[in-house]
Amino acid sequence: MSTQTRPTPTRGRASGREKGRNLFGYLLLTPQMIAFTAIGVVAIGWVIWLSLHHVNVLAGTQEFVGLDNYARILTDPSMITVLPNTFFFVVVLSVAGTVAALLLALLLNQALRGINIFRTIIFIPALVTMVAWALVWSFIVQPEGLLDALLGSVGIDGPPWLRGGWLTLVVFAVIQLTKNIGINIMILLGALQAVPQELIEAGRIDGAGSPRILRSVVIPQISPAILMVFMLLIVGSFKVFEVVLLLTEGGPGVQSSVLSFEVYKQGFLLNDVGYASALAVLLFALILLLTTIIWQTRKRVIFHEGE
What is the pTM of this model? Predict the structure, then answer.
C-alpha cells in the first residue's frame, strides 16, 4: 500500500491565492518599471551619444569627434588629482561607513534605558537634505568658525580645514558619513533584531562568549544586510557632490574636487557638454564595474549564498 500523502485541497487553494496576489502585485509594478527602464536607457544612450561629439551650446550644433573626449580624460592633468580623490571617498566611506554603522547598530540593539532616544537622535541627520547638512557644517569648519573657537578655547590653533589636501577630504568624508549613517544603522538594526534567538542561546549553551557569538552567529546571519549597506555606500561615495560644491567648489584648483563635481563643472559652468558626458560615462562605468565585482564575489561572504 502506498503511503504517499497528497496535498489537501485547502493548501492548494491557498497556494493559488498567493500566486494570484503576487501576479497582481507584479502587474501593478510593471508600468512603472517599464517607464523607469525606458527613461534610464534613453538617458544613458543620449549621454553616450553626446560624449562622442563636440557640442556647441550657444550655436546648438554637434560635431562628431569619436573618442576624442575619452582620450582627453587620459591627458587631462586635473584627473591626476580628481580620480584619487574620488577613490579616497569610495574606500573611506564604504569601509568606515559600514564598520561604524555596524558598531552603532550593535550598540543600539542593546536593551538599555533610554536607547530609543539615542536611536532617534542618530537618525535625525537622515531627515534633512544634504544641502542643509553641508551648510550647517560650513559654519563649523569655516575659518574662525565653531570648531576653531572650541580649539582656541583650549589654546590650540585650528588647522585650515577647507584649504585642500587630505584634511579637507577627511572633513568631507566625515560630513558625508554622518549624514547617511542613520539609514544604514536602521537597516543593520532591523537585521540584528531578526536574528533567531535560538541560535544565540545555542551558542551560549555550547560555551561561546559574546565575541564568538558575534563572529560565528550574528555576523553570518546579517551578512546580506551588511553587503547591501556596503554597496549602497559605494554607490553613494561616487556621488559626493553637494558638500564639494557648497564648501570649496573643488578648490583650491582641483585639490578637493571629485569626478561627479567635474561632470557638473565641465557641463554647466564651462559648457563643455561633450567632455562632461565622457566623464559621466566614466563615472557610470566605474560604479557598474565595482558593484558587479562585489556582487559576483558575494558567495564568499554571504551566509548560505553558496549553497
Answer: 0.84
